Amino acid sequence: MNASCSHGYEDWRLPDRRELFSLVSHSRINPALPANHPFTDVFAGYYWASSPSAQWPKQAWYVHLGGGRVFMGMKQGAYLVWPMRRLQSPNPIAPGDRFEISDHLVSDRLTGLVWLRSAMGSKDVLNWPAALLDVKRLNANSAYGYDDWRLPNIRELESLVALDQHSPALPESHPFQNVSQGYWSSTTSVYDPSYSWVLYTGDGNVGVGFKEKADFSIWPVRSGTSSRFR
Q1: Residue 39 domain flag
Q2: In this prediction, what percent of the chain has a pLDDT beyond 70?
Q3: Enclosing domain of residue 41
Q4: Which of 39, 71, 143, 161 has the fewest CB atoms below 10 angstroms from its CB?
Q5: Concatenated DSSP letters for 82-137?
Q6: Among positive and negative, which fits the CA dihedral 171, 214, 152, 194?
């Protein structure tokens, strides 16, 4: 495409995982894109990202645009390509400036979200209804001075992922403690409402969990004054 100056440009590239994931809407399926999106010829299947796996060098990330799953596949596998180009560079935040610690809380300057520093909101893994109940208890007790805690949606959880790290796949020198293997989100699967979206922190996979099964932890969050997820 670049050699032929396709569509008048020669700076096309494969999107990285976060760029490709930014297109996804978990409220829709086949394709998992926002309502009234402007795209054509979208295949409800797997699209390659340019991001390699930090833990498994022979694998790279892909996004399933049928439902929104984010997993890894062997690099010799055959998936689709959605080329992109960037109009302008984002304003990066230096790794050491991203998180601000205040006692038991961590503010993320990149997203404006406020997380519990201890990433184990409950000492035990829970099923999804119990996870929601635990967050309600936090608010009933005005835990840490706030009563607006909630279970994060899957995009908020995914915002913490660092693709160059693994076990956990969180930014290098992050300030969080007691990081568990997987976390419930508040986002219900459109394919099957008995499942909810889950972040697996070992590698940063985005998958689903059966709501009635006690398999995952909770990581409560609240919106700061400048949250871009509000």
Answers
A1: yes
A2: 95
A3: 6-74
A4: 39
A5: --B--SS------GGGSEEEETTEEEETTT-EEEESBS-SSSS-B-HHHHHHHHHH
A6: positive
Instruction: Give the phi and the psi of residue 84 in degrees, each rounded to 5.
Output: -145, 165
Residues 67 and 107 grouped into a single domain: no
In this model, does residue 37 exceed pLDDT 90? yes
Q: How many domains, in total, are found in the chain?
A: 2
Supply the pTM of this predicted model: 0.91
The token duo for 193 is 């409402």
Other beta carbons within 10 Å of 149? 23
Q: How many angstroms separate the CA atoms of 65 and 68, rounded?
A: 5
Domain presence at residue 229: no
Q: Which of 113, 154, 151, 115 is nearest to 130 (CA)?
A: 151
Distance, CA of 47 to CA of 60 (rounded, Å) = 11
In angstroms, rounded to a whole number, what is the distance separating the alpha carbons of residues 88 and 75? 29
Using one digit for the tens of pLDDT, what is the confidence trace for 171-200? 999 999 999 999 999 999 999 999 999 999
- Asked whether residue 87 is domain-assigned, the answer is no
| DSSP output for 134-179 | HHHHHHHTTGGG-S--BPPPHHHHHTT--TT--SS-S-TT---BS-
